[in-house]
Amino acid sequence: MPKLKTHKGAAARFRQTGTGKFVRMKGHRSHIRRTKHAKVRRLFSRKIASAPVDRKKLKSVMPYGAA
To answer: In a structure prediction context, what are the per-residue pLDDT tens digits for the chain, which is 67 residues long?
Structure first.
């Protein structure tokens, strides 16, 4: 059986935790940053978990996780 390929676009945007969850960064964080409040800019730097319904699709595009 050949190796499965990782989707590089997904690997750049998602990381897999040790428990199998996928975490991602929030979007729209680099556009017009000076006019955003400090609290909003601070919240953009956090990683958040992706939706559980997307886990099956992410598992298929990243079969070995992302390093």
So the answer is: 899 999 999 999 999 999 989 999 998 888 888 899 999 989 998 999 999 999 999 999 999 986 5
Q: How many CB atoms lie within 10 A of CB 58?
A: 21
Radius of gyration of the chain (CA): 15
Residue with tokens 């909003």, as numbered in its chain:
40
Residue 8 structure tokens: 């590089």
b/e sequence 23-34, b meaning 16+ C-beta within 10 Å: ebeeeeeeeeee
Give the Cα separation of 33 and 21 in Å (integer). Answer: 29
